[in-house]
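FAQ: What does the model actually see?

It sees only this:
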Amino acid sequence: MKNTYESPLTSRYASKEMQELFSPDKKFKTWRRLWIALAETEMELGLDITQEQIDELKRFKDDINYDVAKAREKEVRHDVMSHVYAYGVQCPKASGIIHLGATSCFVGDNTDLIIMYEALELVRKRLAKVILTLSKFADEYKSLPTLGFTHYQPAQPTTVGKRATLWIQDFLLDLEALNDFLQRKRLRGAKGTTGTQASFLELFDGDFEKVKNLDKTVANKMGYEDVFAVTGQTYSRKIDSQVVNILAGIAQSATKFSNDIRLLQHLKEIEEPFEKNQIGSSAMAYKRNPMRSERIASLSRYVIADMINPAMTVSGQWFERTLDDSANKRISVPEAFLAIDAVLNLCSNVSDGLVVYPKVIEQRLMKELPFMATENIMMDAVKRGGNRQELHERIRVHSLEAARMVKVEGKENDLVDRIANDSEFGITKDEILQVLKPELYVGCAPMQVAEFLENEVKVALDGIEMIDDAEITV
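And it is asked to produce this:
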């Protein structure tokens, strides 16, 4: 059907893997796994539930009868109870014990947490891939001098690889935040309607130890070690806000990276990949637009703006819960993940195919280097007997005039000739040119890159499973 709206996040941008995590199948199959874990644990703790009922539930755990659930929801206007009913139709022997003692958030909230945690694991793999790819680039170009910029004005030289470490550093900080969050991952557990576990205490005849055991065991059966100690009807919506903040942090780093690439492509120093048959412009056939980098910035902006949704939701919750969170989080959380998935795939693609033009880089650097070398030239002249203050003034005048020639008259920078022709400096042009070697002005940049990649990047990526290149789509 092409006569109704479809999200570009699913039709154009996000990967199949991320889309599957937020699919109806993933959601409702997880609901059924939770109902099985609940019933099985209740049986183990002494409730009147049989193994035959558990086996029946397990037989249909992946066979969702959507048509029955959909028809039922039209009648009762409740998604969870519609799926309880549909599951019961398939499992008549177990129908009476499905969802026993639970509230809707038992399946809804625990499933939301599980999907977010699994989605973050996928994001971690993609983020690690970006860091690794950029690290290879940084290592290859760690010693290639390039003009540095502050305020987008020419500044002291750096190296192409050193600049890349600034992008990597931002992504490492994002990885650190993501890792820290996942170390504390917990489920909501079995908490009842307002978080008091009253229904479960009733089922177990006042045995609080069994209630606690139920809470923890259900989480263990779902593959998690811990649950939140307290909840209302829902887990705190602060969790959603923290998760989207992590994704927005990645979006910020990606935007910085993509903006730098866009600026460098304008300077013709570095370009993103451009395919053989790619069209840059419908009118200007010569154009090589940084379309992927622009898409990174565009989708990242969406994720950064999306931060406000969960922030407003958590701050607007009343007491044990209100339902004004539900419709918003159904959209804001999945779409943040789908968008950042696309962003990281694009970052991997761009960083893996960056094209560097050393001659252009050198040409631009050499136009500015005479200005930066003046202090070295002045010190050398002082060693030869010159007066520091007088030489400083002469360099100032020469520099201003050379800059005027470049800016006003469009001529080449002739500062070297001006100084060489000034007898007060007592230095020849050849001697000045010996000082104008770019590698003399990059400081510790090559060594910094090497140590950063070894001590920071290598350690951070240790043990993280890398995403397969075949799974990267743009």
